[in-house]
Amino acid sequence: GSDWIKAENFVGNGPYKLQQWKPNDFVHVVRNTNYYDNAKVCIDQIFFYPTSDDNAAERKVRTGDLDINTNFSGSRLEEINKNLPGYARIHGYTGLTYYIFNLRKAPFNDARVRAAISMTADREFVTKEILKAGQQPAYSLVPPGIADYQSGAMSTDFKGQSMEERLVRAKKLLEEAGYGPNKPLKFTFSFRNSGDNPRVAPVVQQNWAKIAPWVQVEILGAETQINYEKLRTGDFELGDAGWISDFNDAKNFVYLFQTSTDQLNYGKYSNPEFDKLMEAADVEKDAVKRANMMKQAEAIVLKENGFMPMWFLTNRNLVSPRVTGWVDNAVDIHRARYLCTTDAQKAGAAPKS
Hints:
Layout: E1 16-22, E2 26-31, E3 45-48, H1 54-63, E4 68-69, H2 77-83, E5 88-101, H3 111-119, H4 123-131, E6 136-137, H5 163-176, E7 185-192, H6 197-209, E8 215-222, H7 224-233, E9 238-244, H8 251-254, H9 272-283, H10 287-303, E10 308-319, E11 323-324, E12 340-341, H11 342-346
Parallel strand pairs: 7-8, 7-9
Antiparallel strand pairs: 1-2, 2-3, 4-10, 5-9, 5-10, 6-10, 11-12
Helix pairs in contact: 3-5, 9-10
């Protein structure tokens, strides 16, 4: 029955076994002495704690109650480097923050409106002055670090324009779409109340207000789960989202805009040519040809401004210097079986290679 998930019944063959699990409190695992490579495992037990408050977690790292926390705000980086030198670990990440247009209704069923709003979000200011943790402005869909794919080969057509040029162009596009003093453009931007998103939302709101006085944007924050539920059900106009690769392949990003992707295609973007290219890529054995097909598909959704790429992510971890074996990487996977501590090494408990 359903009792198989209880600690006393759970069966696994990994380096650790479940000792105790208290939902929304902690998960406690202990070394599995029956693991085939147990002699090379260093740490005897690990506690995992869920947290939605990175500042509280940072304090626990500072006091030694936590050895690792898997996130921190870029706005805290300078202070962390000052008070916890050597703890902050930053690395490029195969992930993207992007904004989604609801294409099923006005105003974003008009490509001119989508283009105007996308081009006037100041990605450079957001990444350099707000995020401050190595994030890169995004003008394409597939992030750097994806295998067999040239990230940035396809990009939005406004990437090389100054913000002044974009603002002039955006106003003209909106006027062509019928907006102006007598018909203001009004929409709501929904965002996640987590991480740096609440700090970014008022910045892009101000960016859009610079197009013209008659561009009026309301910003609305929500808990992450609620925000994504609104995206899935279409209860939004412009929404904030993020995507981190499940596996290192461009397909994991480009497929988000296939018609058949359904709920994860939040804005319901649909283009027959895009779909045809992605279907062909699925059966293409030649890696170069396959990548070129996905590049063509990416170019289509970018040209139509089917979404707003905002920034490519970094993985940000606080790691106590007493933890050894930690290797920064683009997918941010750190197997506990390879980690150790300086205390264990001094005591002679470090694994034998």
